[in-house]
Amino acid sequence: MKRIDATEALCGDIVTISGIPTIFVGETVGIGDIDPLPPITIDEPTLRMEFLVNDSPFAGKEGKYMTTRMMQERIFKELETNVGLKLEEEAGRFILSGRGELHL
Q1: Beta carbons of 20 and 68 less than 8 angstroms apart
Q2: Which terminus of the chain has fewer CB atoms gathered within 10 Å of its CB, N or C?
Q3: CA atoms of 101 and 104, how far apart (whole Å)
Q4: What domains lie within the chain, and their CATH numbers?
Q5: Strand 86-90 vs strand 93-98: parallel, antiparallel, or unpaired?
Q6: Nearest 5 degrees, angle CA 81-CA 86-CA 89?
Q7: If DSSP codes are grouped into helix, strand and coil, which group holds residue 20?
Q8: What are phi and psi of 13, to 5 degrees?
Q9: What pLDDT was estimated at residue 94?
């Protein structure tokens, strides 16, 4: 399993397309007279979790040091590829909605 740069793909190939910001998972992309496939649906999230930086008096005594900016960068990176994840931001809190415990 590895990535290979290609200029075309055939039926059955699994591809990643970059450079089209409005494209979504399951859309048909092509040139010319083609019949697009029906779009797929992604299940709505069923579980919500709130993530925030530890501000207790014992913060920083154990574990990895983490700031709000570091959390935000990690969440935004995951949102680029994880189509089932939804984000709501509130004053240093990140409310993530997903499809289960393992998803989040």
Answers
A1: no
A2: N
A3: 5
A4: 47-98 (3.30.70.870)
A5: antiparallel
A6: 115
A7: coil
A8: -75, 145
A9: 92
Distances (CA, A) of 13 to 2, 10, 16, 30: 13, 6, 10, 14
Positive or negative, the CA dihedral 103, 88, 66, 77 is positive
Distance CA 37, CA 41 (A): 12
Q: Which residue has the tokens 């089932």?
A: 84
Residue with tokens 């709000």: 68
CA atoms within 13 A on the CB side of 30: 12
> pLDDT per residue over 72-104, tens digit each?
899 999 888 888 889 998 887 899 999 888 887
Q: Average the pLDDT over 40-55 and give the result.
A: 84
